[in-house]
Inverse folding.
C-alpha cells in the first residue's frame, strides 16, 4: 500500500479468473443458517436445511486450504463487526436495513433503537442472522404489538428482520473487476439486504475506505435512509461475472443477471478502458444452473470446465465500444467457447467436461462439479464428492485439492460461489 496524491493506492483488484489468488472474502455459516427450517428454506433459496455443525467444519477446512496456499482470507462477519463500533457506519447500515418496506413504518423506530443498543458483534450477527419478535421485545419494548401490524400479526419466533443465509455465498453480492467493484442488484428479494452489509464494509472499513478503488456500479446509490434503491428488471449477481483476463469480461445473462444490467456494466467498463470486450453467454432459466459459474469455470489460462448439456445450448455475443455514434457494437458469436478462445489469445482451449455418463454428469453438475475455485493457473479447489469430474481434471494435468462439501453444496454453491476474490493476479 502506498500514497499517491494524498490518497492510498489499493492492494485490491481482480484481473483474471486463474491468476494467483491473493485475497478473498468469505462468510462462515452462522445464525442465519441455523434459522433455516423445513418451512422456510425454499423462501430463503435453499434446497434443504443444513447440518450446521458439519457445514461449519466443511467451511473451516475449505478456509484452511486457502490459508495454506498463501491466500489472505477475510471473514465478512468480522469485518462487519469491526465497523459496527463506528457510530456513523452503524447508523448507515441500520437506516438502510430497517425501513418501511422491510419492517413496516410503525416498527421502524423500535427496531432501529433495538439494533443501535447492541454490541458490535451482536449487531453484526443479527444483521446477517435476522431478528425475531421475541428478540426485539426482550431488548426494546413489550407493547410494540399494540402499535405495529407487522409485530402484532407475527408469532414470537417470527422474523421482524429476515435472516440472510445466502451471505455464505459471497461471490454474488459484489464483483471485483480490475481495479474496482460492483455492488450488485440481486434478483430475489431474499438476498437484497445482503448488499447493504457488504457496501458498508467497503465504505467504512479501513481496509477499503480512502483507498484508490473504483465503484463501477452501486445498486444503493439512489437509496435514501427511508427507502433504499431496489432493482427492477435490471438484476445482476456475481456468479455470472467473470473477468477472464486479457481485457475481457465474461458475463452470464439468464435468470439472475438481466440484459439491462449487462449493458450498464458494459457501458461503464468499456468507456473507462478497464476492458475492451464483454462476452455474453445467454442462458436459460433453470435452478440447476442459476449462474454461469455453475456450468463453466476456468481452471488454467487455456483450460475450462463445462457442463456440455447446457454450454452447447448457450448463445454468445460480444459487446465492444461502438463507433459512429453507437454506444455498442454487438456481434453474434458462433459459439461461447470459440469466443473465449479468441479473447484469451490461445491456440486451443482445453475443455474438460463434467465427469461420468449422462446421469453421473447431471448429478455432479448439481453437486457443483464445475463450480471450482482456481488458486493459480492449473491448481483448483473442488468438492470431493465429484469423483468423475475431479478425475477428468487430473487426467488433463490439473492439480486438484479436494474438500468436503456435502452440506455447503445444499445452498447451490461450490468453491467459486463461496469466495469473493478481492485480489487476483493478471494472466
Amino acid at each position: 500500500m502506498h500514497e499517491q496524491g494524498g490518497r492510498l493506492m489499493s492492494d485490491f483488484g481482480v484481473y483474471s479468473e486463474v491468476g494467483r489468488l491473493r485475497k478473498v472474502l468469505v462468510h462462515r455459516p452462522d445464525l442465519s443458517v441455523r434459522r433455516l427450517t423445513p418451512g422456510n428454506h425454499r423462501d430463503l433459496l435453499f434446497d434443504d436445511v443444513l447440518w450446521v455443525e458439519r457445514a461449519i467444519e466443511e467451511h473451516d477446512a475449505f478456509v484452511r486450504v486457502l490459508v495454506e496456499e498463501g491466500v489472505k482470507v477475510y471473514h465478512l462477519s468480522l469485518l462487519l463487526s469491526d465497523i459496527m463500533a463506528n457510530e456513523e457506519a452503524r447508523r448507515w447500515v441500520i437506516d438502510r436495513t430497517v425501513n418501511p418496506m422491510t419492517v413496516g413504518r410503525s416498527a421502524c423506530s423500535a427496531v432501529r433503537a433495538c439494533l443501535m443498543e447492541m454490541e458490535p458483534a451482536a449487531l453484526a450477527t443479527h444483521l446477517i442472522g435476522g431478528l425475531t419478535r421475541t428478540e426485539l421485545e426482550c431488548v426494546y419494548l413489550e407493547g410494540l404489538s399494540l402499535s405495529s401490524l407487522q409485530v402484532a400479526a407475527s408469532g414470537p419466533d417470527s422474523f421482524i428482520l429476515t435472516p440472510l443465509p445466502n451471505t455464505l455465498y459471497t461471490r454474488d453480492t459484489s464483483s471485483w473487476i480490475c481495479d474496482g467493484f460492483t455492488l450488485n442488484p440481486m434478483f430475489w428479494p431474499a438476498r437484497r439486504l445482503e448488499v447493504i452489509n457488504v457496501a458498508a464494509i467497503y465504505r467504512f472499513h479501513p481496509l477499503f475506505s480512502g483507498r484508490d478503488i473504483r465503484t463501477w456500479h452501486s445498486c444503493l446509490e439512489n437509496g435514501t435512509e427511508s427507502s433504499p434503491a431496489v432493482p427492477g428488471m435490471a438484476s445482476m449477481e456475481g456468479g455470472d461475472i467473470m473477468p477472464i483476463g486479457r481485457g475481457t469480461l465474461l458475463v452470464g445473462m439468464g435468470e439472475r443477471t438481466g440484459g439491462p444490467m449487462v449493458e450498464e456494466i458494459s457501458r461503464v467498463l468499456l468507456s473507462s478502458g478497464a476492458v475492451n470486450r464483454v462476452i455474453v453467454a445467454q442462458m436459460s432459466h433453470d435452478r440447476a444452473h442459476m449462474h454461469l459459474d455453475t456450468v463453466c469455470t476456468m481452471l488454467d489460462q487455456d483450460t475450462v470446465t463445462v457442463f456440455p448439456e447446457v454450454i452447447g445450448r448457450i448463445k454468445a455475443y460480444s459487446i465492444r465500444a461502438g463507433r459512429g455514434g453507437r454506444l455498442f457494437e454487438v456481434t453474434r458469436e458462433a459459439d461461447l467457447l470459440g469466443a473465449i478462445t479468441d479473447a484469451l489469445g490461445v491456440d486451443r482451449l482445453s475443455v474438460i467436461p463434467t465427469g461420468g455418463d449422462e446421469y453421473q454428469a447431471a448429478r455432479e453438475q448439481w453437486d457443483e462439479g464445475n463450480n471450482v475455485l482456481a488458486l493459480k493457473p492449473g491448481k483448483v479447489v473442488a468438492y470431493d464428492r465429484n469423483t468423475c469430474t475431479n478425475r477428468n481434471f487430473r487426467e488433463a494435468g490439473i492439480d486438484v485439492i479436494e474438500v468436503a462439501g456435502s452440506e455447503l453444496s445444499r445452498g447451490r454453491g461450490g468453491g467459486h460461489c463461496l469466495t469473493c476474490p478481492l485480489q487476483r493476479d493478471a494472466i
